[in-house]
């Protein structure tokens, strides 16, 4: 099965990844392109959702909460944190597009008694990672330090010609205090939009070793293994990550050969 899911043409739901379609257990992802005035209704069922306004304006209502007039970022490449809404399991949510809207629906198994809540831009942790040609800007939308049952959501910006999700790291094996098992999706966007990136997904024994060229609105699925991304000269990269697994903790292991990129030996003089 291919790990690259191409965007569907037109507007409406342009991406739909389910555990069944991906051949895994936890992560689901949808992307919607809506015109002003369009509305969609979602039932969370036994899953929790994080609705991310990738760009545009929206009003969002659940059974017990109302969040009108959200948004402000009209392109993800404004590099400001997004507006998002957490929706618990066994809830119903209605989204009305107050402008052209790009909406990501991130999902994973739900549980507990968490209420629906707004995740405002001021609630999003912003950090810069890396050095040299391995720098990126990170927006921690729903990290493991914030309440949810199993869902983790983050967005990452990488400048043209640089790398991210690098040095190669993996989170596919539960090792207490060292690594957690997490499935992951990458929803890719590019500026200018005709750009692409190169992403490799591979394991130590190379039983999985795939290299892909995701274009705008494509999704790369990472069931296991390392998963670095290289942006192409001339095209800035954005991706939205969704992760989930048996334990809601982001612990990973660097690939030993490339861990030196984190040391003072890089950049090389």
UniProtKB/TrEMBL annotation:
InterPro entries: Deoxy-glucuronate_isom_IolB, KduI/IolB_isomerase, RmlC-like_jellyroll, RmlC_Cupin_sf. One of its GO terms (biological process) is inositol catabolic process. Keywords: Isomerase. The keyword Repeat does not apply. One of its GO terms (molecular function) is 5-deoxy-D-glucuronate isomerase activity. SUPFAM superfamilies: RmlC-like cupins (SSF51182). It comes from the Bacteria. Its EC number is 5.3.1.30. Transmembrane segments: none annotated. This is 5-deoxy-glucuronate isomerase. It comes from Jejubacter calystegiae. The gene is iolB.
């Amino acid at each position: 099965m291919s790990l690259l899911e191409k965007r569907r043409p037109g507007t409406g739901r342009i991406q739909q990844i389910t555990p069944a379609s991906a051949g895994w257990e936890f992560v689901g992802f949808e992307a919607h392109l809506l015109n002003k005035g369009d509305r969609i209704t979602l039932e969370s069922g036994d899953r929790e959702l994080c609705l991310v306004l990738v760009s545009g304006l929206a009003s969002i209502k659940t059974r017990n909460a109302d969040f009108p007039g959200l948004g402000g970022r009209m392109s993800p490449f404004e590099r400001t944190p997004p507006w998002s809404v957490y929706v618990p399991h066994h809830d119903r949510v209605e989204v009305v597009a107050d402008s052209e809207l790009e909406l990501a629906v991130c999902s994973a198994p739900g549980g507990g008694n968490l209420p629906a809540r707004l995740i405002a831009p001021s609630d999003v942790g912003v950090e810069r990672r890396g050095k040299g040609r391995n720098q990126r800007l990170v927006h921690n939308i729903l990290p493991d330090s914030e309440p949810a049952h199993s869902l983790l959501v983050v967005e990452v910006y990488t400048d043209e010609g640089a790398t991210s999700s690098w040095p190669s790291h993996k989170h596919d094996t539960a090792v207490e205090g060292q690594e957690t098992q997490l499935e992951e999706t990458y929803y890719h966007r590019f500026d200018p939009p005709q750009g692409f990136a190169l992403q490799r997904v591979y394991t130590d024994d190379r039983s999985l070793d795939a290299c892909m060229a995701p274009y705008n609105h494509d999704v790369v699925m990472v069931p296991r293994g390392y998963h670095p991304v290289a942006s192409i000269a001339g095209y800035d990269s954005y991706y939205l990550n969704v992760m989930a697994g048996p334990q809601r903790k982001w612990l990973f292991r660097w690939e030993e050969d490339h861990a030196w990129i984190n040391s003072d030996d890089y950049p090389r003089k």
